[in-house]
Amino acid sequence: MITAALLFALQVAGSSPATQEAGNGSRSPAGSGAAGEARSTVRDPANKALVVVDAGHGGPDRGMSGLTTARTRVHEADITLALARRVRDALKARGIDVLMTRSKDTLIALRDRGKIANDANATLFLSIHVNAANPRWRNPRSARGFETYFLSDAKTEDERRVAEMENEADRFLDVDAEPGDPLSFLLNDMVQNLYLRESSEFAATVQAGLKPVHPSGLDRGVKQAGFAVLIAAHMPAVLVEVGFGTNAAEASWLASAKGQQQLAVAIADATGRYLTDYARRGGATIGGR
Length: 289
Ligand SMILES: [Zn+2]
What we know:
By secondary structure, the protein is an alpha/beta fold. The chain has one domain (52-280): Zn-dependent exopeptidases (Aminopeptidase, 3-Layer(aba) Sandwich), CATH 3.40.630.40. The protein is 40% helix and 16% strand. Strand 2 and strand 3 (73-75) form a beta hairpin. Zinc ion binds at residues 56-57, 63, 76, 129, 166.
């Protein structure tokens, strides 16, 4: 019906010689080259959940940077990758299939990250980032806490600020990222709209899961904004800002193995909880049938 027509139109819009799969029925991420991490297990996409874990930034795009309490400079791209690997391991330990958009220090265009997830027929898309305070704030170094976003129109200045900051990543690409044709943008937007409710549920579950482990204890809430990385994903999709790298105490925790492990376990537990509820509502199940 409308959904099927939309998805068909998207497939047509998204097809190009460069992105066609060579093999018949191959499920490896098209166009991702070495960036996508191949999975060794065969999955029935209709029944078994697959979570795409997206480590923000990478390669020349270091993301935000900040100083720890020991005055060591840390970069978002390193924190997100280390954390994403731990989230992958924690999800796999719970029997959940995982695909990383990047498993090494490399840069991938924002919309290719969603494409990797679409090509793999993923169930969920989870993008991991580190927040940065606006230097113009009265006391920027004191800003702290965690927030989880789903794709929708930003309602506040702060939501717009975070989306603009994260959407800048594509400027680091050698080849200018094509803006994409207006039709496919519109269709992407409509498809993500279909998942608005599930995405906000997933965001709420992740946000609630972080509260017990986060040293700040500061729950900044579930938020919404226009993230380029989320718009390309045709499934429930969220972006989590795990803390402020501009706050020395949070930067220290985010860069530490202990902090990353606490975060990874909390995110994996929350994702598992969400998937259980999602399966109850008719979505893909963790173990398949
Ligand atoms: Zn980021």
